[in-house]
Amino acid sequence: MTTRLVLVRHCETSWNCEGRFQGWADVPLSEVGRRQAVALAAALAREEMHAIYSSDLRRAWDTALAVAQCHSMSVCEEPGLREMDFGSWEGLTYDQIRERWPNCLAAWQADSLHVAPPGGETLRQVADRVKAVVDKIGCAHGDQTVLLVGHGGSLQVLLCLALGLSPAAHWRLRLGPASITELSLSEAGAVLTRFNDVHHLSEVPRGR
How many angstroms separate the first and last alpha carbons of the chain? Predict the structure, then answer.
C-alpha cells in the first residue's frame, strides 16, 4: 500500500516577515497570509483528498480550513504537527536571542537534538511526536491521499525522517509559507515527488 502525503506549510504571519521565532505562540495569519490561503485552496481544489490533518495552532488551522472548504471536508486536529516549542525565545528575533541568551543559543545550535531552548523542547522530542503522527496516518490511510498542514520545522523534520536523514539536517530543507510538498510512502520507503512548490503564489498581491 502507498500513502500519498501532501504537506503544506501554513501561510504567512506577521512574525514570519519580522523574523520572530513563533513556536507554539498562536499567531494568526496576516492579510497576505489570508490571500495566500485563497490561492493555495485554488491550487489544491482538484486534488483528490481522503483526509486533512492540521496542527491545532491557528495559523496552520486556518490554512487547512481554506483547503477543506473547497473539498467540503472537515479538518482533523493533530497537535503532533505543531512547530518546535521555543519556550522563552518565542516572539523574539535571532539577534534578540543571541543578545539575551548567548550561551544557551550556542549550546542549542551545537546540539539541538538534545538541548532545548529555555522552557522549550529538543529536536528529538519534535522528531518523536512527528514520527508518531506519520506512523498513525500511514496505518489509517493506506492507498489514500492525505493533506498535512503544519509548520516549517515540523514538516522539515518529517521529511528528514521519511528520507532517512537525521532530524538535525532539517535546516537544509527550506519550506516557504503556503508551499506544497509531496511524499509517497510505502513499505519500500519514501519518495519525494514535489518540493516547496509556491507557483500558486505568483499572483498574490503583497499589499503595502
Answer: 48
Residues 179, 8: contact at Cβ < 8 Å? yes
Single-letter code of the amino acid located at 173: L
Residue 67 is predicted with a pLDDT of 98
54 touches 61 (CB < 8 A): yes
Q: For residues 141 and 7, is the Cβ–Cβ distance under 8 A?
A: no
Q: What is the pLDDT of residues 12-38, one digit of tens each?
A: 999 999 999 999 999 999 999 999 999
Q: Taking the domains of the chain in order of start, what are their residue ranges?
A: 3-201
Q: Phi, psi at residue 118, to the nearest 5°?
A: -55, 120
The single residue listed with the C-alpha cell 522552557 is 119
Rounded Cα distance between 189 and 192, Å, is: 10
| CATH class assigned to 3-201 | alpha beta
Predicted confidence (pLDDT) per residue in 192-202, tens digit: 999 999 999 99
User: How far is the C-alpha of 77 from the C-alpha of 80, rounded, in Å?
Assistant: 9
Q: Mind telling me the catalytic residues?
A: 10, 151
Enumerate the β-bridge partners of residue 181.
Answer: 7
Signed CA dihedral, 102, 117, 148, 160: sign only: positive
Q: Which 3 state secondary structure label does DSSP give 205?
A: coil
Q: Which residues pair with 198 in a beta bridge?
A: none
